[in-house]
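I have been asked to look over a protein record a colleague put together. This is what I was given:
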Amino acid sequence: MGKYEILGNYLRNRGRSNITLNFKEIENMLNFQLPNSSKKYRAWWTDDPNHVQAYDGWLKFSYKVKTVDFEKEIVNFIKIEGVKLIELKIDTESKQSFRNIAYKFEKKCKELLSNYFKINLKSGEIHGIHKLFDFVSDDKSIVGDAKYYTLVNGKSLPPAKFSVIAEHVWLLEKTKAKRKFLVFGNDKRVPEEWLKRYGNLVNGVDFYFIDFEDKKVQKLN
């Protein structure tokens, strides 16, 4: 069972066409805190089935998000009438394959970035920040995360992914590390487009891109 399916089962069991929940109710139901992006960005509440919270949390139970009120911290779900679950089903095999590639990318990044920074990097936490970062040096002076993203259908901007990038930049800025970074793989246009729009707001977080083919670390900002 996916970690958001408890929410989906709750919506289905209520059997109502219109259900409003506050964020705290959802967190109590799931037994973990929602990410910061869910409390700031409408894109997190997307009805895109490629996002695990959307697919497991409401779509495959025939619900979609109608409105989100961030001031009151409430979200309104409505029943999707006449939609068969098969229409919302993701190709599980392809999705798992993509996750495997993303995992291999993160693993390769550890090796390449450890050589690039000339210091051992491994996953770890930073005191005071509730997140497991992909790359942390033993002395906590270097911290970063990996993102394996692509444009939607190879051409459209991915708003939900842009929100996740913004959240991770914010988290990295909260650390006291001397070197903070995000490293991207798959499609360089994603970080490049993000930097075009929001790069002037970034404070001390470096963006890198690594291609599987040439295995070179490219600095983007």
In short: The mean pLDDT is 86. The radius of gyration is 19 Å. Residues 92-219 form a domain with the Trna Endonuclease; Chain: A, domain 1 fold (CATH 3.40.1350). DSSP finds six helices and nine strands in the chain.
